[in-house]
């Protein structure tokens, strides 16, 4: 595809197919994506069990979606760094570590939100 032109530009539907293909590639090849998806399913089951209210569901869905999004971005950034250099370069390590840290911080934030939401649903707070 030529930047700025419509020549060889994928159709709207094809763009979705590429996105789905990317998601399935990540699910097949990345352990952490699978861990996040399993934790998301466990959270949904727990939410059903405690009968979360609509606002709590929104918070849970947003947090789960953001964590998966961050993990996908981290995976993409790592692939880009690997494409740019195969050697152990300090800047490559720095980029990968910072990208991983962003997922870590977001995951901790989502966990705190989950604790608050479920504590409230269980009448603890």
TrEMBL record:
It is found in: Cell membrane. The active site is at 71 (proton acceptor). GO terms for molecular function: ATP binding; kinase activity; metal ion binding. Its cofactor is Mg(2+). A divalent metal cation binds at residues 30, 78. ATP binds at residues 18, 30, 78, 87-89, 96-97. Keywords: ATP-binding, Cell membrane, Kinase, Lipid biosynthesis, Lipid metabolism, Magnesium, Membrane, Metal-binding, Nucleotide-binding, Phospholipid biosynthesis, Phospholipid metabolism, Transferase, Transmembrane, Transmembrane helix. It is a multi-pass membrane protein. Mn(2+), Zn(2+), Cd(2+) and Co(2+) support activity to lesser extents. Its main location: membrane. GO terms for cellular component: plasma membrane. GO terms for biological process: phospholipid biosynthetic process. The chain crosses the membrane at residues 33-51, 57-77, 98-122. Substrate binds at residue 71. It holds the Pfam family DAGK_prokar. Signal peptide: none annotated. Belongs to the bacterial diacylglycerol kinase family. This is Diacylglycerol kinase.
């Amino acid at each position: 595809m030529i930047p700025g032109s419509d020549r060889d530009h994928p159709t709207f539907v094809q763009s979705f197919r590429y996105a789905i293909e990317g998601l399935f590639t990540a699910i097949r090849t990345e352990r952490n994506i699978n861990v996040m998806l399993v934790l998301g399913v466990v959270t949904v089951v727990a939410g059903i069990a405690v009968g979360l209210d609509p606002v709590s569901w929104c918070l849970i869905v947003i947090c789960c979606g953001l964590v998966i999004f961050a993990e996908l971005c981290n995976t993409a950034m790592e692939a880009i760094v690997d494409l740019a250099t195969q050697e152990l370069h300090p800047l490559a390590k720095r980029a990968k570590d910072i990208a991983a840290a962003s997922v870590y911080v977001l995951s901790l934030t989502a966990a705190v939100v989950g604790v608050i939401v479920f504590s409230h649903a269980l009448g603890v707070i």
